[in-house]
């Protein structure tokens, strides 16, 4: 008999419901909301959880397929953007973008070079510097996975009205701000 590692959806949903997890209103004051309003708020939270799980699964699948970690994937996305903007990418720019040390950047670049994802060459205007470019094959892989996913998300956001987008922007920014408060 196998044991499920994930609680059933109804249990997962109830973990978002203050009526279940905080029935005495110690943390969440929902006393001014009707039952329907609380249910709607819980549905928003369920939608966020569902999106985060889908995003995490896609990210894991892309990284696993390409045998990369999260920082490596971020580096490749930066190199795609650099290529698209005709910007010369250097180890220093990459380290700054990823907020990692130059030593960590060097190790990452060694890994990505060995795997055939990037190439290093002499900088076109500063012969002392190194230029990093993404290989064509890796560029296509990133474009097909991350790029297509982003395109679908863009289409969803584009279908909203300008007023709806403003509400979503405010909501997501406010939601992000809650992570910074303790």
From TrEMBL:
Taxonomic path: Bacteria, Bacillati, Actinomycetota, Actinomycetes, Micrococcales
Superkingdom, natural source: Bacteria
Protein name according to UniProt: MarR family winged helix-turn-helix transcriptional regulator
Domain HTH marR-type: start-end pairs: 35-177
Pfam families, sorted: MarR
Organism: Arthrobacter cryoconiti
InterPro entries assigned to the protein according to its UniProt record, in alphabetical order: HTH_MarR-typ (IPR000835), MarR/SlyA-like (IPR039422), WH-like_DNA-bd_sf (IPR036388), WH_DNA-bd_sf (IPR036390)
């Amino acid at each position: 008999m196998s044991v499920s590692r994930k609680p059933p959806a109804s249990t997962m949903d109830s973990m978002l419901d203050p009526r279940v997890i905080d029935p005495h209103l110690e943390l969440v004051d929902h006393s001014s909301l009707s039952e329907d309003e609380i249910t709607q708020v819980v549905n928003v939270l369920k939608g966020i959880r569902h999106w985060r799980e889908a995003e995490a699964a896609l990210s894991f699948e892309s990284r696993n397929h390409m045998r990369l970690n999260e920082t490596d994937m971020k580096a490749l996305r930066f190199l795609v953007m650099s290529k698209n903007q005709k910007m010369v990418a250097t180890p220093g720019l990459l380290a700054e973008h990823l907020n990692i040390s130059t030593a960590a950047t060097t190790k990452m670049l060694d890994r990505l070079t060995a795997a055939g994802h990037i190439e290093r060459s002499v900088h076109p205007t500063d012969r002392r510097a190194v230029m990093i470019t993404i290989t064509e094959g890796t560029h296509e892989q990133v474009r097909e996975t991350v790029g297509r996913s982003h395109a679908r998300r863009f289409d969803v956001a584009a279908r909203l009205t300008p007023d709806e987008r403003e509400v979503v922007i405010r909501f997501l920014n406010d939601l992000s701000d809650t992570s910074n408060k303790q």
